[in-house]
């Protein structure tokens, strides 16, 4: 409880908080992470290819049917709902304390919870575009398409999710916006990330503020640099902190 009270008091004292999060932020919402023992990269699936291969640009272009079979079954979770972490962050933004959420996730749960200042490093499942005519399709429209590889009803082109695949670069404007937000923050909360995926993980090195808080169940390369380290489930922690702040 002392750690939670410390975090709550630091939040009260801060007025420029930035949150940097990864897959662990959404595991309590029922979305598997990637690298833990129960994560996506460790579980069984129907393809002989490893997920890292199937989620590459080269594989998407050469075998879109296998890509979409995996993507639809493993990467899309329309039933997921925000947990305590998403809810607290949205509330802090509404209070003017939190200036940005920087996420490696593609699930859109921060926006569903009410956050508006969200920088999505790896894109979003909720945005999909025809590769030929650039027509936009929402997730609901994509899910209504019965063919394995979705094609644009207007021109017949393949519809690609607006997610960053292996071999693709991050959006430059999102990257620069993340750097600026972290560099100007007085408090950085890092949650649910192993801090091993580059270049996203290197963003935390731009922080020059007063306090760094790290919430992650497993050790990270940044643990010894955190002012406060909490190794418990982030949704549970943030939900308890939300109660302390109310």
From TrEMBL:
What is the superkingdom listed in this entry's lineage? Bacteria
Q: What is its EC number?
A: 2.3.1.286
Residue sites binding NAD(+) per the record: 23, 27, 34-35, 104, 106-107, 122, 193-194, 216, 234
PROSITE patterns linked to this entry: SIRTUIN
Q: Which residues form the Deacetylase sirtuin-type domain?
A: 1-246
The principal location of this protein is cytoplasm
SUPFAM superfamilies in the cross-refs: DHS-like NAD/FAD-binding domain (SSF52467)
What are the entry keywords? Cytoplasm, Metal-binding, NAD, Transferase, Zinc
> What does the UniProt cofactor note say?
Binds 1 zinc ion per subunit.
- Localization terms from the record: Cytoplasm
Protein family according to the UniProt entry: Belongs to the sirtuin family. Class U subfamily.
Described function: NAD-dependent protein deacetylase which modulates the activities of several enzymes which are inactive in their acetylated form.
Question: What is the protein's given name?
Answer: NAD-dependent protein deacetylase
Q: In which organism is this protein found?
A: Paenibacillus odorifer
